[in-house]
Amino acid sequence: xxxxxxxxxxxxxxxxxxxxxxxxxxxxxxxxxxxxxxxxxxxxxxxxxxxxxxxxxxxxxxxxxxxxxxxxxxxxxxxxxxxxxxxxxxxxxxxxxxxxxxxxxxxxxxxxxxxxxxxxxxxxxxxxxxxxxxxxxxxxxxxxxxxxxxxxxxxxxxxxxxxxxxxxxxxxxxxxxxxxxxxxxxxxxxxxxxxxxxxxxxxxxxxxxxxxxxxxxxxxxxxxxxxxxxxxxxxxxxxxxxxxxxxxxxxxxxxxxxxxxxxxxxxxxxxxxxxx
Length: 276
Prior knowledge:
The chain has 276 residues and is an alpha/beta fold. Helices cover 30% and strands 22% of the residues. It has an eight-stranded mixed β-sheet with strand order 5-4-3-2-1-12-13-14, sandwiched between helices. The chain has helices at 14-18, 27-38, 51-58, 90-96, 122-125, 158-172, 195-206, 223-228, 240-245, 259-267, and strands at 9-12, 42-46, 66-69, 74-76, 82-85, 106-110, 114-117, 134-137, 150-154, 176-182, 185-190, 213-217, 231-234, 250-251.
């Protein structure tokens, strides 16, 4: 008998959540998700990653998975059919970038087949075990088409990102909302785009509600999905401020400890699964 009742759907973020510290899915986690599939749970991965990048990761699970990517700007079915897409208007993006940007900050636009950037950032490349979604070096002063799924900034100095966030919101807040997926990663999306909204689209298609879902996350781009789920779980490795933002939610083990899989095994599946 399952310990967590009325749960029919499992929703998980990738980085810092389903993925371990090597940005991979462990063999133990794969075995747990295969058992979820065997027991007829619906599985949804909701990530800030681009779908081309995320496909290469979720394919290793070996089970059908709905993919919500680019923080909700794309939805793909388990057979990789595009079900929903949304792009930021070129002028909105251009206006957002029309602020003073510290030269230490990496600027990225998520486009359909490439990500344009002002610098090749090896730290960002390291997030892809296989480079399926490739960077393209551009000079934003000469770029003509700024249309994108989302705007992404990376910098080791969090305060510089906070300053940039304030500058962009000062002239673009009517169109954009932001999230720190990590303290070093700042993302801007259209106000209509959010992981939780896109997850609801998937669940409506499958005849479920968010109250029948358990969700796992570790970043501020997960806040709405964690708060809206029937059971939201925060990773132990999540920033302290996220835990303070959602104090009513349970904090579980870290991604390095296979926290998602361990929780599913003990609280959702019909029997305990030992860590191999």
